[in-house]
C-alpha cells in the first residue's frame, strides 16, 4: 500500500461532520464545526474508512491522494 496524503479544502467544507463520523481517527471538527485532519494524521493513519469518509463528504472537500 502506498503512502497517502489527506487534506480538507476549508473553502469548500460546509461542516456536515460526515468525515469525523466516518473516520474519527483521521478527522475532527474545529471550534466552528468545520472538518479538519487531525494533527499527525495527514497520511490517513492507515484508517480503512478513510476513502469512505472522503466519499461521504457532501461537497467533496476531502482530497486523498498518493504521496
TrEMBL record:
Q: Does the keyword Electron transport apply?
A: yes
Source taxon at top rank: Bacteria
- What Gene3D superfamilies does the entry give? 3.30.70.20
The protein's UniProt keywords, in alphabetical order, are: 3Fe-4S, Electron transport, Iron, Iron-sulfur, Metal-binding, Transport
Q: Name one GO molecular function term.
A: 3 iron, 4 sulfur cluster binding
Q: Which organism is it from?
A: Streptomyces klenkii
Cofactor(s) needed by this chain: [3Fe-4S] cluster
Function summary: Ferredoxins are iron-sulfur proteins that transfer electrons in a wide variety of metabolic reactions.
* Membrane spanning residue stretches: none
What InterPro entries does the record point to?
3Fe4S_ferredoxin, 4Fe4S_Fe-S-bd, Fe-S_cluster_ET
PROSITE patterns, per this entry?
4FE4S_FER_2
Q: Which Pfam families match?
A: Fer4_13
What is this protein called in UniProt? Ferredoxin
Q: Which residues form a coiled coil?
A: none
**Residues covered by the 4Fe-4S ferredoxin-type domain:** 4-32
Amino acid at each position: 500500500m502506498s503512502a497517502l496524503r489527506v487534506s480538507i479544502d476549508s473553502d469548500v467544507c460546509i461542516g456536515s461532520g460526515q468525515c469525523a463520523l466516518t473516520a474519527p481517527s483521521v478527522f475532527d471538527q474545529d471550534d466552528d464545526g468545520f472538518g479538519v485532519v487531525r494533527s499527525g494524521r495527514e497520511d490517513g493513519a492507515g484508517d480503512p474508512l478513510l476513502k469512505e469518509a472522503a466519499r461521504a463528504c457532501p461537497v467533496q472537500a476531502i482530497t486523498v491522494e498518493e504521496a
